[in-house]
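testing teh design pipeline on a random one, pls ignore if ur not involved
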């Protein structure tokens, strides 16, 4: 496979609302990000994926865009954005922008026009259907944010499709004019020198609503090939598609370099392992660790040489992993955060760090729905209340799976509002910010931040981490995840104790030469009888 810069890169996701406020309005902004670039450079990351900063009425915090080529005033100006690209570049950091083109905001001029009537030139930019014979919904498609995916438009007597909120009407990708406008907009950003695109729910652009097909529609890959040819194919950039339902077969369609589509996709199979099959994400079940390992191994092996993996635990839609599958108590938060980091960063693929993960930020449970901002959680709450569900049970699901968990402001220091803002934060901080923050973590020799720094350094210094072959050992072990990476005659062994109790690893056939990295002092060297402490994670060089 031809080597590209993004194969050996580490990406850091910034959720701009919650990263750093520079003007005291309680909302993070572009100048705030610029102020923190030195911090990110010190961490060692190569790329920032910036969640949307475009003009938006914020029904879904920027994922409802009313102008793709304007910066939302609450984040700053186009000049600030250009400065951010430039200041990042000076530090060898590339800016990857969020591309949200499955839908626009209903306040986008295209939709405002389209709504004017059936004859409007922009009508066909969106997906309209007549009511069913009984006057009801065109079909039973549901919105990801609860309720039907169709909204009635009084003016024209038709329904429009919205797979997300009703303020996020779906674009009609069948219309070549829509695609043309999107290519122009993408080229506008590429010409500004960005480092690529993260493509929001890109697997839905080929939908066929009349056949109830939302993801992986028949024309999806034609559109992506056209996009590649007309836009970023002419630039040396990273492209990553958000594809919730991808299997390895599907992921290869996107990321096989010969097909000239995307660099890689986010697949979410591991993330869904604590959900009941075929139920909404709110209906959880305990994680099956053996299944988790099988999923990672499947993706590591099946994409090998034929595609590329994105590696992640967290993002702005997923609660904090250290709280959900690790242990966020005072005793084990630090070691378990480092365990997750080691587990992921030694795998083959491009790792993504979500803001705050590098200091072990945790979930923020709430006790009432008034404390919640996220539209997905709020809609689900009201829907289930109307169905007669127990409010406490609904809140428990929100505390476990709700998106506000990862959207609380970044915890920089122990001062008021954690140094995030001098004003009133748009969303309350996690109450533990005085203990868990960048300044406090940084002071410690064994900080989580430094552990991430070392992992990033290892990837930069050892081709084995980027290109080495992956092999899992002990797939049936209920507590340990053990894998090897081998490259040019060298082998590293990664031994992970996933749980908060001790474990023993016995491998008389292998010999450790040295310890490359551990989340504890004095980790054992005798692989024939290796005692592992709670959440201990060690990387060995084998002799
Ligand atoms: C996925 C984004 O990550 C999420 O935050 C958003 O709500 C939906 N797509 C809709 O754009």
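output:
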């Amino acid at each position: 496979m031809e080597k590209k810069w993004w194969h050996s890169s580490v990406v850091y996701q910034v959720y701009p609302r919650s990263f750093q406020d520079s003007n005291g309005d309680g909302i993070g902004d572009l100048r705030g990000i610029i102020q923190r670039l030195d911090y990110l450079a010190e961490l060692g990351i190569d790329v920032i994926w910036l969640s949307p900063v475009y003009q938006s009425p914020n029904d879904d915090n920027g994922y409802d865009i009313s102008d793709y080529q304007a910066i939302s005033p609450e984040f700053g100006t186009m000049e600030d954005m250009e400065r951010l690209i430039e200041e990042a570049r000076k530090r060898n950091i590339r800016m990857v922008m969020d591309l949200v083109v499955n839908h626009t905001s209903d306040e986008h001029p295209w939709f405002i026009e389209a709504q004017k009537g059936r004859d409007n030139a922009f009508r066909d930019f969106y997906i309209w259907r007549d009511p069913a014979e009984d006057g009801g919904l065109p079909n039973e498609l549901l919105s990801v944010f609860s309720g039907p995916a169709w909204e009635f438009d009084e003016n024209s007597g038709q329904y429009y499709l919205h797979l997300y909120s009703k303020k996020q009407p779906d674009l009609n990708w069948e219309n070549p004019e829509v695609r043309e406008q999107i290519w122009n907009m993408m080229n506008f950003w590429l010409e500004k020198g960005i480092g690529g695109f993260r493509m929001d729910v890109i697997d839905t652009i080929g939908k066929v609503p009349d056949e109830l097909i939302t993801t992986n529609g028949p024309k999806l890959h034609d559109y992506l090939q056209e996009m590649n040819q007309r836009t970023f194919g002419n630039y040396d950039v990273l492209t990553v598609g958000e594809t919730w339902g991808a299997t390895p077969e599907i992921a290869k369609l996107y990321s096989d370099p010969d097909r000239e589509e995307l660099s890689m996709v986010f697949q979410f199979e591991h993330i869904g392992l604590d959900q009941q099959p075929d139920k909404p994400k709110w209906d959880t079940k305990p994680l099956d660790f053996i299944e988790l390992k099988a999923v990672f191994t499947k993706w590591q092996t099946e994409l090998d040489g034929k595609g590329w993996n994105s590696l992640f635990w967290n993002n702005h839609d997923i609660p904090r992993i250290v709280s959900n599958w690790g242990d966020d108590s005072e005793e084990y938060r630090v070691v378990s955060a480092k365990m997750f980091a080691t587990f992921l960063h030694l795998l083959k693929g491009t790792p993504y760090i979500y803001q705050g993960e590098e200091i072990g930020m945790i979930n923020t449970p709430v006790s009432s729905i008034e404390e919640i901002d996220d539209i997905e959680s709020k809609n689900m709450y009201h829907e289930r209340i109307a169905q007669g569900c127990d409010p406490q049970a609904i809140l428990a699901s929100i505390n476990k799976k709700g998106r506000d968990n990862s959207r609380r402001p970044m915890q920089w220091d122990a001062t008021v509002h954690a140094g995030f803002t001098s004003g009133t934060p748009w969303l309350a901080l996690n109450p533990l910010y005085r203990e868990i923050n960048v300044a406090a973590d940084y002071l410690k020799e064994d900080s989580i931040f430094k552990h991430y720094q070392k992992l990033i350094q290892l990837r930069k210094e050892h081709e084995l981490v980027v290109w080495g072959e992956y092999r899992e050992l002990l797939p049936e072990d209920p507590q340990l995840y053990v894998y090897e990476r081998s490259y040019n005659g060298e082998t590293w062994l990664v031994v992970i104790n996933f749980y908060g109790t001790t474990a023993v690893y016995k491998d008389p056939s292998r010999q450790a030469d040295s310890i490359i990295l551990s989340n504890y002092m004095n980790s054992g060297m005798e692989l024939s009888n290796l005692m592992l402490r709670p959440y201990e994670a060690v990387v060995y060089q084998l002799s």
